């Protein structure tokens, strides 16, 4: 199965500024505040994946049926990220996308009666 | 050998889940940052700096700002803010309650204006101070806006301890349901700032930590600073307070051509001891 996703938009911090307390109270000099550019101003990278699988069906007694599914997710490409975070580290913006590892084998068993 | 192989497989398996990268440059490379609070009967003071866009590569060039001028709401020139080093600027004019002011300066050939209004006066009183069984202190106070306005007034409350002549912001607790810290649950107790808005007089209580008297000696003092602030400044302070507790909460860009805030505040101080 071929799947293509245009990815979602997120807000990312692009400016680092001093905390207001540094100015009005000469307090907390090391604290910084982060300001994002536009709301949902950055789009994550598009992605695609190809899954391959096979289904075995075995007839049991009377109405019973055994179904065994097996295959590999993201045989080609990568899975869509289920979590995306942005941060400022050593003065640079970093975006981290976390997705299922690819390729990812799967097995499922269903019993119908 | 088997354990090492298994461990390497697990590390390889999980490291493949995460993908880190730097986004391409977006928006302006440099933006001015205005930070300041105009308080009634005090000189105008601001800090004017430069914020580098973190999606651009490191660049040492800084846009210089030559002149910052202060204007009233009728666009009459009042003063120039003199540079005092360390990006600080100060005017010889004092702010007046109920009046609006405008700051103007040129940044990268673009004229930037920042506006603020000093809210009207209010009255604050301490009604009762109760020393509780665990040596904590409960202070009940009331706040009443002196202007006959139907608009909400926005208040910010801070507690300051002066110990050995060193000023420190003191955390405290509050359970009043109209306080925005409790109403919206975005900030967790103990608080360093209380936020609320109201059209009518309000009574509230502040509870300090247990054994509070152990930290104070003769000559030390504890005060409550109550500020009535303009709505933009209120929102900015509220958001910065949330960001201190939640790193993934970012401040909105105020889209005025500059970052930061030039807030207006009417301030009253109550001395507890």
From TrEMBL, chain B:
Residues 1-20 form the signal peptide. The keyword Signal applies. It comes from the Bacteria. Keywords: Signal. This is Uncharacterized protein DUF4249. The lineage of its organism: Bacteria, Pseudomonadati, Bacteroidota, Bacteroidia, Bacteroidales.
């Amino acid at each position: 199965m071929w799947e293509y996703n245009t990815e979602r938009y997120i807000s990312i911090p692009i400016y680092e500024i001093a905390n207001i307390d540094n100015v009005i109270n000469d307090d907390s000099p090391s604290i910084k505040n982060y300001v994002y550019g536009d709301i949902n101003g950055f789009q994550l990278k598009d992605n695609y994946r190809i899954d391959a699988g096979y289904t075995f069906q075995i007839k049991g007694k009377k109405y019973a049926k055994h179904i065994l599914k097996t295959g590999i997710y993201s045989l080609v490409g990568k899975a869509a990220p289920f979590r995306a975070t942005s941060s400022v580290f050593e003065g640079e913006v970093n975006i981290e996308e976390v997705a299922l590892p690819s390729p990812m084998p799967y097995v499922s068993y269903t019993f119908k009666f | 050998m088997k354990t090492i192989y298994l461990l390497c497989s697990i590390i390889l398996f999980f490291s493949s889940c995460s993908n880190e990268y730097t986004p391409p440059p977006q928006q302006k490379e440099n933006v001015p940052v205005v930070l300041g609070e105009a308080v009634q009967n005090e000189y105008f003071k601001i800090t004017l700096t430069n914020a580098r866009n973190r999606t651009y590569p490191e660049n040492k060039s800084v846009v210089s700002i030559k002149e910052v001028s202060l204007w009233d709401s009728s666009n009459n020139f009042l003063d120039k803010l003199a540079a005092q080093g360390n990006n600080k600027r100060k005017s010889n004019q004092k702010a007046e309650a109920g009046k609006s002011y405008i700051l103007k300066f040129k940044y990268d050939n673009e004229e930037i204006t920042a506006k603020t209004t000093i809210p009207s006066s209010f009255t604050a009183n301490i009604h009762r101070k109760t020393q509780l069984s665990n040596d904590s202190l409960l202070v009940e106070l009331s706040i009443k806006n002196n202007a006959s306005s139907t608009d909400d007034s926005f208040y910010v409350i801070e507690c300051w301890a002066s110990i050995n002549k060193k000023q420190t912001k003191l955390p405290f607790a509050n359970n009043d349901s109209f306080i925005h810290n409790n109403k919206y649950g975005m900030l967790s107790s103990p608080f360093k700032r209380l936020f609320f808005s109201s059209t009518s007089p309000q009574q509230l209580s502040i509870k300090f930590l247990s054994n509070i008297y152990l930290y104070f000696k003769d000559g030390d003092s504890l005060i409550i600073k109550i500020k009535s602030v303009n709505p933009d400044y209120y929102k900015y302070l509220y958001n910065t307070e949330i960001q201190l507790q939640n790193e993934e909460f970012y401040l909105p860009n105020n889209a005025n051509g500059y970052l930061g805030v030039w807030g207006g505040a009417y301030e009253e101080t109550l001395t507890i001891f």
